[in-house]
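Data card: per-record layout.
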Amino acid sequence: MAGKLTIHVLDTAQGYPAVGLRIELWSCDRLPKSVTTNADGRTDAAG
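The structure for this 47-residue chain is written out next.
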């Protein structure tokens, strides 16, 4: 059974979701997934 990772990024200094933040998930020197947060601070991509 594969695991699932969810991400919700908040800018605590401003009190808003972090919009446009690029998130990279690396594994053994490979970049298997790169996503960017949306207006809600979440990622639209399933993975």
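Known properties of this structure: Residues 1-47 form a domain with the Immunoglobulin-like fold (CATH 2.60.40.180). The chain has a mean pLDDT of 85.

See the next section for split statistics.
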